[in-house]
Each structure stands twice: as structure tokens, then as C-alpha cells.
Amino acid sequence: MAKGHRSQIKRERNAVKDTRPSAKLSFARMSVQKACFVLDAIRGKDVETALGIVTYNPRYASSVVEKLLKSAVANAENNNGMNAENLYVAECYANKGPTMKRVRPRAQGRAYRIEKRMSHITIVLDER
Predict the structure, then answer these.
(1) Region entry Disordered: which residue ranges (predicted)?
(2) CA angle centred on 115, ends 109 and 57, rounded to 5°
């Protein structure tokens, strides 16, 4: 069992702040599975290689991830004063977001549900 009061535990957990540059896109209109195909390809690569991969990847998610990666690099340069040549993709993941539920009419008065899934995509960079 945890030691201390709940507020004390939260305070200790929030005291450790991650200073690595990152970018997050919430409510991206694609499923987690489709976003992860592109994210798995760039994980651990340096920024130049990762940008090359997502630029020439034919998937729709790659254009979204490319924009997010450029944003993370800009955050690293402007906010943290890091050099873009030394950066690499330390973490990248997609979490499940809310699902929009729609109805598709079918034969004999039935209705099938269509689920339009969303995801929250995060890219975290670090220096070598």
C-alpha cells in the first residue's frame, strides 16, 4: 500500500518534471492502430531520418505525424535552446481518444453503428 496521504503522493509525482521537448496532438481523426504504423517506423531515429521517413510514407497518418514532428523540433530549438542536428525521437505513442458514433441504415429497417475513432498522438524528443 502507498505511503502518505493522497495529496502528498500526487505532489511527489508531479514534482518530477520532464524537461524533454515534446509536441502533442489531441483528437486526431484517425484510429490508434493507423497512427502507430507510422510512429513505429520513426521511434528511436534521429530527426532528419524520421522526417525523411514520414515525408515519403503514403499513409494519411504520416502527414499528421510530420507536422507534429516539425512542431516538436521547433519547440526544442525555441524553448529549450537545443540544436536540431543532435535530436532524436525518444518516445512517440498514440493513446485512444473519444469515439464518435454514427448510424448507417441497413436492409429491412436495421441500423449498423459506425465508430469514427480518434487518438491523442505524442512525440517526445531528446538530445544525443
Answers:
(1) 1-20
(2) 135
CATH number of 20-127: 3.90.470.10
Question: How far, in Å, CA of 90 to CA of 45, rounded?
Answer: 8
- Phi, psi torsion values for 17, nearest 5 degrees: -100, 130
Q: Are 125 and 87 in contact (CB under 8 A)?
A: yes
pLDDT of 2? 57
All three cell numbers of 8, joined, read 502528498
Angstrom distance (rounded) from CA 123 to CA 22: 6
The residue to which cell 544525443 is assigned: 128
To the question of pTM greater than 0.85 for the whole model, the response is: no
pLDDT digits (tens, 9 = 90+) for 68-110: 999 999 999 999 889 989 999 999 999 999 999 999 999 999 9
Quote the pLDDT of residue 102. Answer: 97
